[in-house]
């Protein structure tokens, strides 16, 4: 009986941790003009490809959270660059996309223009899926405040919501020159890579101190391993071959900000003051 109960509990735990955590980012706690946002412990960078995309908070009640208007979202306000294109990308977590809402219009916010929207999912720079939506865009303010739902569980008759990616790129064409992006529903694939707000402590392979630091760092590793230091945007800044024990490193040359120190099995966030 005890054996059966133990097995049942283990099965339930495995089932729970086998599924990712679904979250919807509505951007309401993000800062105006920011080129990144944090949701469910994960930092996403907003990468502008054509035009300048960032968090918009100057026009209350012009976003859409999937049920009612809200105040913040991503957009390319007053940028005439064409075709407008941006990505949301994280370098320390893989994720899946369920759905999001987009406002697509001319620069004067006129919804009565025609265009297309291309949605691309990438993993390590490799395209995992791409689809272009050509019809079905909202052309009036009511009832969704002008936003069109993009549902990846049924995009052009295909389900892309189970594909693991680290970057979602969105590009508008045709008459679509302005793009607003809101209510991003995604799944954190925490079984594959650690989240940016998490430090892998279970393996006890790496310890870093002091944190925050003015430059000097002591990196303690349980074995010889190559350590990489990345910027918040995911750019590799430095690689160090460590030995078992304490290794002294200095990042005084880096600007103040947040960085990530990674080994093949761990990721730790550090602050440079």
From TrEMBL:
Q: Which domain of life is it from?
A: Bacteria
Fetch the Pfam families from UniProt: Por_Secre_tail
Where in the numbering of this chain does the Secretion system C-terminal sorting domain appear? 208-271
Leader sequence segment: 1-20
Keyword set, alphabetical order: Signal
Among its keywords, does the record have Signal?
yes
InterPro entries per the UniProt record, alphabetical: Secre_tail (IPR026444)
- What this protein is called in its record is T9SS C-terminal target domain-containing protein
The species this protein was found in: Chryseobacterium pennipullorum
Organism placement in taxonomy? Bacteria, Pseudomonadati, Bacteroidota, Flavobacteriia, Flavobacteriales
């Amino acid at each position: 009986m005890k054996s059966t109960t133990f097995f049942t509990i283990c099965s339930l735990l495995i089932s729970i941790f086998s599924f990712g955590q679904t979250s919807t980012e509505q951007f309401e706690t993000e800062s105006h003009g920011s080129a990144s946002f944090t949701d469910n412990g994960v930092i996403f960078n907003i990468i502008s490809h054509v035009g300048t995309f960032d968090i918009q908070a100057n026009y209350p009640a012009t976003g859409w959270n999937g049920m009612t208007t809200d105040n913040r979202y991503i957009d390319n306000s007053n940028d005439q660059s064409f075709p407008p294109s941006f990505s949301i990308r994280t370098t320390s977590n893989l994720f899946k996309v369920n759905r999001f809402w987009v406002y697509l219009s001319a620069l004067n916010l006129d919804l009565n223009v025609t265009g297309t929207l291309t949605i691309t999912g990438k993993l390590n720079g490799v395209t995992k899926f791409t689809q272009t939506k050509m019809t079905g865009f909202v052309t009036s303010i009511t009832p969704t405040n002008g936003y069109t739902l993009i549902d990846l569980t049924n995009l052009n008759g295909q389900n892309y919501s189970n594909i693991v990616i680290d970057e979602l790129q969105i590009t508008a064409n045709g008459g679509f020159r302005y793009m607003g992006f809101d209510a991003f529903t995604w799944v954190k694939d925490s079984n594959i890579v650690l989240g940016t707000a998490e430090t892998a402590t279970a393996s006890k392979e790496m310890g870093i101190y002091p944190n925050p630091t003015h430059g000097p760092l002591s990196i303690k590793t349980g074995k010889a391993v190559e350590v990489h230091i990345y910027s918040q945007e995911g750019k590799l800044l430095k690689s160090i071959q460590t030995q078992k024990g304490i290794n002294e490193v200095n990042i005084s040359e880096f600007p103040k900000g947040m960085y990530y120190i990674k080994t093949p099995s761990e990721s730790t966030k550090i602050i440079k003051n």
